[in-house]
UniProtKB/TrEMBL annotation:
GO terms for biological process: translation. It comes from Ilumatobacter fluminis. Keywords: Ribonucleoprotein, Ribosomal protein, RNA-binding, rRNA-binding. HAMAP family: Ribosomal_bL21. InterPro entries: bL21-like (IPR028909), bL21-like_sf (IPR036164), Ribosomal_bL21 (IPR001787). This is Large ribosomal subunit protein bL21. GO terms for cellular component: cytoplasm; ribonucleoprotein complex; ribosome. Belongs to the bacterial ribosomal protein bL21 family. One of its GO terms (molecular function) is rRNA binding. The gene is rplU.
Length: 102
């Protein structure tokens, strides 16, 4: 059984026992977090839509935090000697999916 969850404006396909990196969530390490499912697939049954997913819950445990890859950016405007280099490294929360119940 797997579920598609929505977190931080993105969707992830998760199964029980899987660790997934999501956008930064509120909560301490070891605390429980509830995620909103978008789609649930259990063998031949597929549940989608708000009314079908009213009794479905996906819970996980916060394992820790991590950082994504370094992104290097560069902007310039021609003929004006305007150049700027910048870097970005996104912070993520690592969540272990403990239970998918319907």
């Amino acid at each position: 059984m797997y579920a598609v969850i929505a977190s931080g404006g993105k969707q992830e396909k998760v199964t029980e026992g899987q660790q997934v990196a999501l956008e930064l969530l509120d909560g301490d390490e070891g605390s429980e977090v509830s995620l909103t499912p978008v789609l649930l697939v259990d063998g031949e049954n597929v549940l989608a839509g708000a009314d079908a997913l009213s009794g479905v819950s996906v819970t996980g445990k916060i394992v820790g935090t991590t950082k994504g890859p370094k992104i290097n950016g560069f902007t310039y405007k021609r003929r004006t000697n305007q150049r700027r280099r910048y870097g970005h490294r996104q912070n993520y929360t690592v969540v272990e999916i403990t239970k998918i119940s319907k």
